[in-house]
UniProtKB/TrEMBL annotation, chain A:
<keyword id="KW-0813">Transport</keyword>
<dbReference type="InterPro" id="IPR006059">
    <property type="entry name" value="SBP"/>
</dbReference>
<dbReference type="GO" id="GO:0042597">
    <property type="term" value="C:periplasmic space"/>
</dbReference>
<keyword id="KW-0732">Signal</keyword>
<comment type="similarity">
    <text>Belongs to the bacterial solute-binding protein 1 family.</text>
</comment>
<feature type="signal peptide">
    <location>
        <begin position="1"/>
        <end position="22"/>
    </location>
</feature>
<protein>
    <submittedName>
        <fullName>Extracellular solute-binding protein</fullName>
    </submittedName>
</protein>
<dbReference type="Pfam" id="PF01547">
    <property type="entry name" value="SBP_bac_1"/>
</dbReference>
<dbReference type="InterPro" id="IPR050490">
    <property type="entry name" value="Bact_solute-bd_prot1"/>
</dbReference>
TrEMBL record, chain B:
<dbReference type="Pfam" id="PF00528">
    <property type="entry name" value="BPD_transp_1"/>
</dbReference>
<keyword id="KW-0812">Transmembrane</keyword>
<feature type="domain" description="ABC transmembrane type-1">
    <location>
        <begin position="76"/>
        <end position="293"/>
    </location>
</feature>
<feature type="transmembrane region" description="Helical">
    <location>
        <begin position="225"/>
        <end position="246"/>
    </location>
</feature>
<feature type="transmembrane region" description="Helical">
    <location>
        <begin position="113"/>
        <end position="136"/>
    </location>
</feature>
<feature type="transmembrane region" description="Helical">
    <location>
        <begin position="271"/>
        <end position="292"/>
    </location>
</feature>
<feature type="transmembrane region" description="Helical">
    <location>
        <begin position="18"/>
        <end position="36"/>
    </location>
</feature>
<feature type="transmembrane region" description="Helical">
    <location>
        <begin position="167"/>
        <end position="191"/>
    </location>
</feature>
<keyword id="KW-0472">Membrane</keyword>
Amino acid sequence: MKHLLAMTALATGILASLPGLAQDKTVVSFLHKFPEPENMAYFDAAVAEFEAANPAIDIVMESVADEPYKDKIRVLMASDQVPDIYFSWSGEFGRKFAREGRTLDLTEALAGPEWQGRFAAASLEPFQFEGKQFGIPVNVDSKYMIYNKAIFEKHGLAVPTTFADFIALNDALLAAGEVPIAYGNQSPWAATHYIGDLFAKMVPDDVRQADYQLLAPADQLYTHPGYVEALALYKSFGDKGYFNNGANAISHQQARGAFIAGRSAMVYLELVEFYMLADTPVAEQGWGFFPLPPMEGAAGRNDLLTGAPDGFLISAKTEHPQEALAFLNFITSPEQAAKYVSTTGMTSAVIGSVTEETTTPETLAGLKALEDAAGMALWLDTDMDTASANVILAAGQGLLSGDETPEAVMEKVRAAAKETLAQR
Amino acid sequence: MTDRSDHTRATWRQSLQGWLWVAPALLFLVVFVYGPALTNIRFSLFSFSAMSLDWDFVGFDNYLRLWNDPKFTTALTNNAIYAVISVACQVGVALTLAAVLEARVFPDLSANLFRTALFLPSILPVVVVGLVWQLLMTPTTGLIDQLLWETGLSSWSKAWLGEPDTAIFAVIFVSQWQWTGYIMALFMVAIRAVPRDLYEAMEIDGASGIQQFWHITVPGVRETILIVTIITILGSLKVFDIVWVMTAGGPNHSSEVLGTLMYRAAFRDDMIGYSSTIATVIFFIALTIGLMQIKLQKDR
């Protein structure tokens, strides 16, 4: 019995000392949405390198995929277990964290000399709220129409320079028996990329911004006719057969696969997907890209590209702001950003990190087009308030299946926006 | 006096022992079932988001909003359709299959093969089943669409999961494919408990297989039918995973069920209070069905 007691006391002592050992390190929790092998290869190496250089800091990293991330971060917010560093899309998705005081104000920190000249103003701006910087951009992304050069050459078609040309191009492809655009709208965020771009082109910029941020008077929210016209145009793409059959039942990945296999002439892809086209059948046939072309006489802006930077935020309640900032400083340093680009195939928001040495010529050209654009029309579903965005998300499917009309959709958007405005 | 007090003490001790034995289970239930259920009802009276720590008391406004929400009507209807089809397939069809396989109509080898083939889908994870069927039902390139084209039935070709009219039925079909075999196995066990001499007596009297089914099998497995029906209805009410995997409630909310509606409200729309309202409604519907089950079992 005495032996048992002695052993128990010893075991208790050892166990009690363990937390003491762990407490020697400052633990910084880090949650992101890049679980793909190529992304994890970079982040694992970066964390190991940072910890080796900072032995007193322990970065506890967790990663979940894109869609589950939206759920997980909300659960963590609701249960007040916010990680020290967490991922956020730009626009309203990030702004609502800032609005509710869940982010650390980084304005002063980013004014420091080591941060100067690291990011373009266009990348920083979407992470600002009421003049304060609440996030740090990590990558930039934009949307392009990718086309199969062999199919275009076969039918003697050229890259369109105006939206009217683009419509004519789709008609010509249809007449030639081709599927013009591979489209997977099972997860309806895909629709918001089309609709968001059309809204930017067809609604005056100041009106659109005032609507998205609910700054317009309640009775004027989303009343511009450009919204209905844009939805009608999107619907017409489905009605005319520009999209493949059953787009609502196909995932974006399947649509991309169909394009890669040569079953469609075009597909609307993100810049960060360019690397996935390497060593595929379509790479052998040749492919190029163009942004959705400018629309003559439209009320909005034709010089914007649909896309956005992604970034990291620091929790307002973090107990280790300096350590968290040090880690973000490390992974957005020019050397790490170059590694990020070459390892993941993604782009980076850090100026000078995307070069011929670190990425493909197509990605480089895509980034150049982004730099040449006057600005960005942010992803619609992360730029509008949640309730209004949810209406558009469902409508992206409903308009294609024919059980929604553009007018009815905008009526619902107005109601959702008014309700959100009333609650703020 | 002493005898009575000794008796009381013994009874009390016995009672205490009983309470101590059930205490862990009771504590578990209070902490993980009744506590959260009551907390959820309280949440349903507030309006708050996952982001904000401010709670606004709104009374029964969330319930009123739910009542007027067309998505709630769609979800409730879909749950009801799900339940009706599930009961028909998982009770009616499964019982028939079990009776046929137990009636020695097929040779043993064939019967075992059928039994295994029908039971197999139920051991697969729901997510895997959903994803595989999603691929099979893909328009143009999916196996089902290609079969229809190859067999000259191209006019039947549809985006089964992409059209509002067919999406929920496609999901329900997959659910029946997965679970009918499992319920059939339960019925087979129940049928084996029915005395064989009853069947033999009816055979001697010249009764057909169908007559034996209606007059011996069905009354003999009455208890199992009741329990399986209740389980199936409750399962249809709580369904979430297969719908979320295959359609996520789309297109345009047409295949929404109460489970997906609740999940969407909480984790996509940032309306925790409203989501709690949906959860409370689901809780009370399930409670009503549960009480009905208890009453029906007592009546027998």
